[in-house]
Q: What sequence folds into this?
């Protein structure tokens, strides 16, 4: 039987506990949605004021040089690279995850057109994050070159899905709904043996679990900075390309920032060397600058300590739900096995939407995902073991009292 | 002979003079680069703090609903639409100009595939803004469907360029270098008569000159918000699609935000109705929110008053350069005719780069564009006639004294 005192004892031993003071969290909130929008670093407000007041207001156009705006995508990319097993010069922060996925997939297909021209199948998961599938669909529809998307159910039965027709395998490292995680090295090796290029979506992995892109033999990766990396709402995303592919091909969104000589104003496109060719148009500087605040905090922490605490919080959440809410119809859909899960835990409940609305009204902020999924993000930099205890106690109270049946929790809002 | 006193007299009569107090401009600067990065509205700093501290920090994920983040692209699009002759529901603020151009061009080509399937030529100007040409190149290369780009020199000899092979005509309304402006209605009518769809880049037009997209019979338009609309460095761009085309076709960058039911998490893409289908991935909210500050100021002003003052400032600049710097090798490359120019004036000078560096060091901030072009943006909301006088007086002093020959003005920086 786990008590709140046990949780307090675990907090006292927590080497990461001090990081919480670097984040601005409102009073009365237990924030379990850092996998959707990470919390705000205190430093982000100051940085934002600096960019707006000094760099934009006073520096004006001169800040492209003087404040280093032009170097931001590569400089932040190099910092981010340290968190995902990438070397300097392999990552840039730019655009959105959806757009970066489009670039990487187009580049991968072009490589395969050269190396294995008959291959016309892209494999992904039916339960992949929908926008990933939409972007694949959009590219295939645009190309009209006979590509098809093969969707496999749940965790991939690789030996069935990967045959000699498969050009690209596109997977989320950690599933947005269930939290299930792939063994990136094993899957990449299997794909490579099949002549298939891998493209990994790290949206729910970067900053949440140790990622080793180069060591795992991945080919392409994209991801976002506003979840576990705490970059701010809609902050620019990232793209990584394995060194072997970087100078080989263009990508189709060939805007000025990816040009070899962006200020020579030449009418013909000439791709920059290396990862910079994956840049396209002018980036939202004020949003991008804040990404550095979240990255700097993550780089102070040991990723293995983050992982250990994340797993401990997940185990605690799962155990407490069984212990406190055992008589309620909550079904864990996240793998219990450590190697097979990321940093959030999810439960199905027949009235999941209403229960989550009630939790949020009580200050326990997780989120709801169709169908019937209560999702709880575990962010070791600003959550304690006691937070988990208090969150589950609130959940128990809501379920025991059936307060989720109150009319105000039944109304659906546009965004959940 | 025009004197500084004449300029002061003109300022005293200027009905737009009061707008300057809404902008934060550093002391000692005459800012003639608002066509590259607009000045900061005072209100942008407060708005930015609000988004970062309250909406992100306190509201966290709830702000997608509570702070109206989800509605921002359409809400700002409707405000912006009032400045470019668009009706509500026809414009969204999103992504970058380069990306929006890619979407619009792909959509236009798809329409032509249905209506005039043999057409495989895209026409643009050799002197169009290079990123526009790069994006066309990227899309053609991706499609591998036999498209070619026909580049015409200088102002378009339409009757030669528009033949029965031309699917799409892509032009900048105002040329980024020379400031030359097309008659949008005349060109659109000529294109339409030829069965050619028009795609207008309004980067140097929106907020600078009256634009009447619907009345001109344009088909597609894109543009940026960080120049004459004062949205902040790299603030998100916009896209407009004529009502006749909006529900007809998809666009290929089909991310979650353009889905009919973005939170239903369906594996198949179903485009939203209307302009919202031109949205793609998650937007940089903190940058996007500041766009509203610039738009709100522009909407307080009469666009025709802005245009009248812009032309007066341009005439003044041209006249003063002739009067004060007549013996120096400055060549006006902007059309003198009002109907044929936008809101900046440009001069060639054999040592244009060095002269501009010297001007900037003296607090007169214009910019340099290859080859040899001194470019001066005229932004009626925060420039006075006396500013123009003082800027030209500084230019005269630099040219008379040849101070641009000093070694510190010879060094080229990465970004100009």
A:
């Amino acid at each position: 039987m786990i008590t709140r005192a046990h949780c307090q004892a675990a907090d006292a031993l927590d080497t990461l506990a001090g990081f919480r003071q670097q984040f601005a969290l409102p009073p009365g909130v237990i924030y379990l949605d850092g996998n959707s929008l990470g919390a705000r670093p205190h430093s982000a407000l100051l940085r934002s004021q600096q960019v707006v007041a000094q760099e934009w207001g006073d520096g004006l156009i001169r800040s492209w040089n003087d404040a280093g705006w032009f170097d931001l995508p590569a400089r932040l990319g190099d910092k981010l690279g340290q968190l995902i097993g990438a070397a300097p010069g392999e990552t840039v922060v730019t655009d959105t995850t959806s757009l970066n996925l489009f670039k990487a997939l187009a580049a991968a297909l072009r490589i395969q057109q050269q190396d294995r021209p008959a291959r016309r199948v892209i494999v992904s998961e039916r339960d992949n994050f929908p926008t990933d599938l939409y972007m694949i669909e959009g590219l295939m529809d645009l190309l009209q070159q006979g590509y098809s998307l093969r969707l496999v159910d749940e965790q991939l039965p690789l030996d069935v899905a990967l045959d000699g027709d498969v050009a690209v395998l596109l997977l989320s490292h950690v599933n947005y709904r269930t939290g299930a995680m792939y063994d990136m090295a094993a899957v990449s090796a299997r794909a490579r043996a099949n002549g298939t290029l891998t493209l990994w979506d790290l949206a729910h992995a970067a900053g949440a679990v140790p990622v080793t892109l180069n060591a795992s033999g991945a080919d392409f990766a994209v991801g976002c900075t506003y979840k576990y990396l705490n970059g701010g709402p809609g902050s620019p995303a990232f793209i990584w390309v394995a060194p072997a592919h970087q100078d080989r091909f263009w990508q189709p969104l060939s805007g000025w920032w990816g040009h070899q000589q962006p200020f020579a104003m030449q009418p013909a496109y000439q791709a920059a060397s290396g990862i910079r060719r994956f840049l396209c148009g002018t980036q939202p500087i004020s949003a991008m600058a804040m990404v550095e605040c979240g990255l700097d905090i993550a780089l102070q922490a040991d990723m293995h300590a983050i992982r250990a605490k994340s797993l401990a919080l997940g185990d605690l959440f799962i155990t407490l739900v069984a212990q406190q809410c055992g008589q309620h119809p909550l079904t864990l859909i996240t793998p219990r096995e450590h190697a097979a899960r990321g940093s959030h835990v999810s439960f199905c409940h027949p009235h999941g939407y209403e229960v989550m609305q009630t939790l949020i009204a009580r200050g326990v902020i997780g989120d709801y995902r169709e169908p019937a999924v209560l999702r709880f993000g575990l962010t070791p930099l600003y959550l304690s073991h006691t937070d988990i205890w208090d969150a589950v106690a609130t959940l128990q109270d809501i379920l025991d009292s059936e307060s989720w049946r109150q009319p105000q929790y039944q109304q659906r809002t546009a965004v959940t």
